[in-house]
């Protein structure tokens, strides 16, 4: 589940019409923010995520817009605010923005000398580095939090978190760091708080002392002050500040060993070749700054970037660094595709068809095809248990990781603290995904639960579950599996470890496992409570162990089925008691005139996707509610039509849905 903090923010009302608007780039909303939520003229308050809204140039996109919504609001819940997703709209970088021209300014030379280190440095090539940190894990939403470590959904990091990552088999850690709130000086020195530099240095020591390779970066500065696409962006200032920042980071970290690599900037916005050229220039300024800072930096591995750390844009616009820089370098890009599956948009809970796989492979192959001789690392990717269907997610993990390996590309999983590792309890929320990851990275074939892959299907099956409807009689259940050359070696009840008996409890064919009615009757009855009753652990000759979740379900009923559209714009929580799976699968919005509330083009999608809204932009949930976001209420207001919301639950089978109507 999404953190409590995220949930609090998700239900917070959006205040409007208050005086004392925020200055350009000022914070105007987010968790714990109590100030005025409006912006000065020419700017609007853009919600990057539940934790942070900022005044950015331009006018707010219409809430009822039927165009594709930006992914950025979901991004930090699932990963980081970004513009990487293929379908992200231009709201972060309004199309009205002035086209950035590569500035002709020269950057000041260092004012303090070069660092000299007493220790030794063991040089490592960029290809050896990225191979050694594969697979990697991101310490997301932590040192990159706005404004301080601890301000988002994660407590300040402790060493035990890296022990957890180590125990799970990770070899590398990416450490995102936001610097923008830690400047104590302004132009031309841009002095960074030494306490913050020390904290970053200390965390890097926590990481490397545990034997990890690590990449440290400049993170959300990319949408604070370093956005070369922003209207009126002062490129001279961005370049000056970028140089000074990296000179200071380079000085502080100059004597770190070769296990520490640098990444100039996270997901720098960019939509044109000119932006791409300016980002190449930032790569170069970064290299100059760290080399000027001295120490071991001239031999340190760097992972260079281009627009959005998007693979296709990087392929188009990335320029190799000047040969005068001797740093071993790799290219880092990020991968959150397909957008609709990863971000739970338009009801896409299905993934894994031949076409889905071919599209993913083509993306990864294209970046490799453009950079045949460059070490590549996907510095962020994820398919979070919060947003994706279980069997589809496991197939995605397996296929994505095997494909990355096929194209000699290392990977670093994004984990915002609410996705995978529960840092407080040290428990991985999806242990099967972790197991699939470790095996896929090593090239070991995993068995996988089969699931619906046909996007035109009217219902979705998933062999990650035995879904049993309350009051139905208990019958034998046959689940299709993709054994991928492995044989099932045991099936046990995960709670007790009690082995199931082949024959009386279950039978195996070449493509399925059947659990017998007598066995299932020991776990569930028609009147069992509507919850997860047990998991069966399946162990195979090779690869990950799988879980089959025996889940009794009934269709939840809502506390009310209809209400008048509220006069003010706020999130609308609808109370319900979950009965089985504890989240919605999708929500369809139909106007009284028969049209869809948003995204009319979804009429061309399959029946499970038509008219569906997008998680987080449009809807959310908590322990006792489905939440329609303020943006949806605004869309109903703009449409002026009574709208019925069909809430689909898991399993996605006919009848497992309820309607809720907003009347106007
Ligand atoms: C742009 O930034 C530079 C360097 O900080 C500064 O000298 C200059 O005055 C700025 N230009 C504008 C138009 O603000
Ligand atoms: C290079 O990248 C572009 C953009 O993604 C892609 O269209 C092209 O096919 C790639 N080239 C190769 C040789 O893979
Ligand atoms: C079965 O596994 C799922 C996923 O790990 C978990 O949420 C659920 O609580 C488990 N059920 C039982 C009865 O332990
Ligand atoms: C099962 O039966 C009980 C008792 O009649 C009823 O309350 C419940 O709603 C039924 N569940 C379903 C899914 O029909
Ligand atoms: C929901 O409402 C739509 C449109 O009025 C209707 O066609 C559909 O049958 C309803 N579904 C349920 C589950 O009530």
From TrEMBL:
<dbReference type="InterPro" id="IPR050386">
    <property type="entry name" value="Glycosyl_hydrolase_5"/>
</dbReference>
<feature type="domain" description="CBM1">
    <location>
        <begin position="20"/>
        <end position="56"/>
    </location>
</feature>
<comment type="similarity">
    <text>Belongs to the glycosyl hydrolase 5 (cellulase A) family.</text>
</comment>
<dbReference type="GO" id="GO:0071555">
    <property type="term" value="P:cell wall organization"/>
</dbReference>
<dbReference type="GO" id="GO:0030245">
    <property type="term" value="P:cellulose catabolic process"/>
</dbReference>
<dbReference type="Pfam" id="PF03442">
    <property type="entry name" value="CBM_X2"/>
</dbReference>
<dbReference type="Pfam" id="PF00150">
    <property type="entry name" value="Cellulase"/>
</dbReference>
<keyword id="KW-0961">Cell wall biogenesis/degradation</keyword>
<protein>
    <submittedName>
        <fullName>Endoglucanase D</fullName>
    </submittedName>
</protein>
<dbReference type="GO" id="GO:0005978">
    <property type="term" value="P:glycogen biosynthetic process"/>
</dbReference>
<keyword id="KW-0326">Glycosidase</keyword>
<keyword id="KW-0136">Cellulose degradation</keyword>
<dbReference type="GO" id="GO:0030248">
    <property type="term" value="F:cellulose binding"/>
</dbReference>
<feature type="signal peptide">
    <location>
        <begin position="1"/>
        <end position="20"/>
    </location>
</feature>
<keyword id="KW-0119">Carbohydrate metabolism</keyword>
<dbReference type="InterPro" id="IPR001547">
    <property type="entry name" value="Glyco_hydro_5"/>
</dbReference>
<dbReference type="InterPro" id="IPR014756">
    <property type="entry name" value="Ig_E-set"/>
</dbReference>
<keyword id="KW-0378">Hydrolase</keyword>
<dbReference type="InterPro" id="IPR013783">
    <property type="entry name" value="Ig-like_fold"/>
</dbReference>
<dbReference type="Pfam" id="PF00734">
    <property type="entry name" value="CBM_1"/>
</dbReference>
<dbReference type="GO" id="GO:0005576">
    <property type="term" value="C:extracellular region"/>
</dbReference>
<dbReference type="InterPro" id="IPR000254">
    <property type="entry name" value="CBD"/>
</dbReference>
<keyword id="KW-0624">Polysaccharide degradation</keyword>
<dbReference type="GO" id="GO:0009986">
    <property type="term" value="C:cell surface"/>
</dbReference>
<keyword id="KW-0732">Signal</keyword>
<dbReference type="GO" id="GO:0008422">
    <property type="term" value="F:beta-glucosidase activity"/>
</dbReference>
<dbReference type="InterPro" id="IPR017853">
    <property type="entry name" value="GH"/>
</dbReference>
<dbReference type="InterPro" id="IPR035971">
    <property type="entry name" value="CBD_sf"/>
</dbReference>
<dbReference type="InterPro" id="IPR005102">
    <property type="entry name" value="Carbo-bd_X2"/>
</dbReference>
């Amino acid at each position: 589940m999404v953190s409590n903090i995220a949930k609090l923010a998700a239900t917070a009302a959006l205040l409007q019409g208050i005086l004392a608007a925020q200055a350009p780039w000022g914070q105007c909303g987010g968790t714990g923010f109590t100030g005025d939520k409006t912006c000065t003229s020419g700017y609007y308050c853009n919600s990057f995520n539940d934790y942070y809204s900022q005044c950015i140039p331009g006018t707010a996109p219409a809430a009822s817009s039927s165009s594709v919504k930006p992914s950025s609001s979901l991004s930090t819940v699932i990963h980081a605010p970004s513009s990487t997703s293929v379908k992200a709209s231009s709201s972060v970088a309004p199309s009205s923005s002035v086209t950035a021209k590569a500035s002709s300014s020269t950057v000041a030379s260092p004012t303090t000398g070069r660092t000299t280190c007493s220790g030794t440095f063991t040089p490592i090539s960029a290809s050896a580095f990225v191979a050694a940190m594969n697979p990697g894990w991101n310490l997301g939403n932590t040192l990159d939090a706005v404004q301080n470590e601890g301000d988002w959904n994660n407590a300040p990091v402790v060493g035990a978190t890296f022990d957890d990552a180590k125990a799970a088999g990770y070899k590398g850690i990416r450490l995102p760091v936001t610097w923008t709130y830690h400047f104590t000086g302004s132009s031309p020195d841009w002095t960074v708080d030494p306490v913050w530099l020390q904290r970053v240095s200390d965390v890097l020591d926590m990481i490397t002392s545990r034997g990890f390779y690590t990449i440290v970066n400049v993170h959300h500065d990319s949408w604070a002050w370093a956005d070369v696409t922003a209207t009126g962006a002062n490129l001279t200032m961005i370049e000056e500040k970028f140089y000074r920042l990296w000179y200071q980071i380079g000085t502080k970290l100059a004597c770190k060993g070769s296990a520490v690599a640098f990444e100039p900037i996270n997901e720098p916005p960019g939509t044109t070749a000119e932006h791409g050229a300016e980002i190449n220039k930032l790569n170069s300024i970064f290299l100059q700054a760290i080399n000027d800072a001295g120490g071991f930096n001239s031999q340190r591995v760097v992972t260079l970037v281009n627009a959005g750390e998007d693979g296709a844009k990087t392929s188009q616009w990335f320029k190799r660094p000047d040969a005068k820089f001797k740093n071993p370098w790799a290219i880092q890009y990020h991968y959150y595709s397909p957008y609709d599956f990863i971000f739970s948009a338009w009801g896409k809970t299905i993934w894994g068809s031949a076409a889905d796989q071919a599209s993913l492979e083509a993306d990864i192959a294209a970046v490799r095809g453009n950079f045949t001789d460059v070490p590549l690392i996907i510095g962020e990717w994820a398919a979070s248990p919060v947003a994706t269907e279980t069997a589809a997610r496991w197939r995605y993990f397996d296929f994505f990781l095997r494909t990355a390996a096929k194209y000699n590309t290392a990977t670093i999983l994004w984990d915002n603290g609410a996705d995978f590792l529960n840092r407080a309890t040290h428990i991985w929320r999806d242990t099967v995904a972790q197991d699939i990851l470790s095996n896929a990275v090593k090239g070991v074939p995993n068995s996988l639960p089969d699931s619906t892959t046909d996007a035109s299907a009217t219902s979705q099956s998933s062999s990650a579950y035995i879904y049993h409807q309350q009051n139905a009689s208990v019958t034998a259940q046959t689940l299709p599996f993709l054994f991928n050359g492995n044989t099932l070696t045991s099936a046990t009840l995960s709670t007790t470890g009690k082995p199931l008996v082949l024959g009386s409890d279950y039978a195996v064919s070449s493509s399925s496992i059947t659990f017998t009615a007598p066995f299932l009757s020991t776990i569930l009855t028609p009147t069992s409570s509507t919850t997860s009753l047990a998991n069966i652990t399946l162990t195979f000759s090779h690869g990950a162990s799988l879980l089959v979740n025996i889940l009794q379900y009934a269709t939840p009923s809502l506390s009310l089925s209809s209400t008048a559209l509220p006069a003010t714009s706020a999130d609308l929580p609808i109370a319900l008691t979950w009965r089985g799976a504890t989240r919605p699968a999708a929500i369809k919005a139909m106007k009284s005139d028969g049209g869809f509330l948003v995204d009319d083009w979804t009429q061309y999608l399959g029946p499970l996707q038509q008219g569906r809204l997008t998680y987080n932009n449009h809807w959310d949930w908590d322990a006792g509610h489905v939440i329609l976001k303020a943006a949806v209420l605004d869309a109903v207001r703009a449409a002026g039509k009574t709208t019925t919301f069909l809430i689909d639950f898991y399993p996605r089978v006919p009848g497992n849905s309820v309607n809720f109507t907003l009347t106007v």
